[in-house]
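Lecture notes, unit on binding sites. The following record was shown on slide 14. It pairs a sequence with magnesium ion.
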Amino acid sequence: MNSEIHQKPPIAAIATPVGEGGIAVIRISGMNAISKVSEIFKGKDLSKQDSHTVHFGKIVDKKGFPVDEVLVTLFHSPKSYTGEETVEISCHGGVLVTQKVLETILATGVKAAEAGEFTQRAFLNGKLDLDQAEAVADLIHAKSLKAVDAAHQQLEGRLGEHIKQFRQQIIDATAMIELELDFIEEDVEFANKEQLQKLLEDLDTEIRSLLETYEAGRLVKDGVKTVIIGRPNAGKSTLLNTLVGSDRAIVTEIAGTTRDTIDADWSYDGLLFKLIDTAGLRKTDDVVEAEGVRRSQKAFEQADLVMYLKDLSHPFNEEERVEIAHFQKRSGDTPFILIGTKADAEADMEWRTEFDVKISAHEQQNIDTLKKLLKDRALENKHYDASSLLVTSTRHRDSLQKTLEHVQAAINGLKMNMTGDFLSIDLRAALQELGAITGEITNEDILDSIFSRFCIGK
Ligand SMILES: Nc1nc2c(ncn2[C@@H]2O[C@H](COP(=O)(O)OP(=O)(O)OP(=O)(O)O)[C@@H](O)[C@H]2O)c(=O)[nH]1
Ligand SMILES: [Mg+2]
C-alpha cells in the first residue's frame, strides 16, 4: 500500500443518519482540519492536544453565539480513516442542531463532502484497497447477516490476498519467460516449459474456483429473488404473509384477488429472500387481471428461485398438469419447488405427484421445513461455503473473467510453442486486470461510479 499521505483541503459532512437521536457525528477531514474546528470551538486549545483524544467544549458561530455543547475527537495524520487530519464532532442528535453545527463549520470555508469522498480519500492515501473501499459500501448497504459477513471478509482484505497471490503467480511465470528471452540468441531450449504450463494451469484452476463463488455471492449480497406462482386461490398471498409474519398481501376466498406483483423482504438464517407474490395464472378477459398475469410471467423469468403452489383441496385438472410441467421445464437451472398448499383440507388426488413439501399455512404445518428447503435450494450447486470468500461484485467478476481469458491465451500460446514475448503480452494483460480489482490500476470513471454509491459522510 501507498504510505505517502496527501492532505487535500478539508471537507465536512454529517456522518450519522438524518433524524432524532442521542448524538450525531459531524466529520471533518483534510489539511488543517483541527485549526478550522478551533475557529468555532470554545474549550481547550485543540492545536495542542494529542491524537486520539476527546475534548468537551462548545461550538459557537461567527458572532460568538453558542450552537451546541459537543465532544470533539482528534485524529492526527496519518492515523485516521482517511489518512488526513480528522476531527469528529459529537453533538446533540437533533436534525436542526446537527445541521447548524455543520453550517457553522462550513462557514469557515470548509467544503461540504460529496458522497463517498472520505472513503475515496482513504483509498487515494492507500489506507484501503479499492475492493476494501467497495466492501465499506457493501457493509453499509447490507440487508442480511450473510451479506454483512461477505462484506467483512472483503473488508479484511481476503479478496485482496487472493488477488495478490494470483499476481505473484503471474510474475513468477513472467520471470521464467524473461529468462528464456535472455538466452534466445544462444538458442537455448526452453527448459521450464512444463513447469511454466503447470504454474499457469494451477492459476487457471484457482481463478475458476474463485469465479464459481460469484452466483452465491450475488444471492448473498442482493438477496434471492423468490417468486410465488400458481393458479388463483392457491394460497400464494397467504404464504407470503406467513413467511413475513404480517398481513402484507390481501387474502380473500375470491379467485383473482392479487392483481399486481407484491414484493416483501424476508430473512431466514441470515439470507435475504426478496419474495414476490403474483397474480394467479389463468386465461382471463379482464384487462387488469390479464396485465397481472403478464407480470407474474415476467417475475417468473427473472427469479432466482421459484415456488409453484398447488391447492391440495382440489384435485388436479389436465390444464394444471400441463402448466406445472411447462414451468418446471422453463425454470431450467433456476431451482423450482413444487408446494402443495392447504394440506389441512387435502382432497383425494388421482394424479400422484411428488410434491417437494405439503404445507398448511392455516395450521402452520411444515412451514419450518419449507423455510429450510428454500434456503437449501437457493444455494445448492452454487459452490457456497459459509466460511469461504465470495466474489460479490460484477466488477470483480468481470475482471477475474478477463484475467482468466488472458491466462488461457497464454496457456494456448505455450502449447503452440509461441515465443516468450507473445506470452508476456497475455500475462501483462492479466496483471492489468487483477490490478483493476484492488485499484492499483484504475481510471476516473470507475472510481466515480464506485464512490457515488456511498452515502454522504462516509
Ligand atoms: N384450509 C386452508 N385454506 C387456506 C390455506 N391457505 C390459504 N387458504 C385460503 O385460500 C383462499 C385463497 O388464499 P390466497 O392466499 O388469497 O390465495 P392466492 O393464491 O393469493 O389467490 P389469488 O391472489 O386470487 O391468485 C383464502 O380463503 C385463504 O384463507 C390453508 O393453509 N388452509
Ligand atoms: Mg393472492
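Take-home: The chain is about 45% helix and 15% strand.
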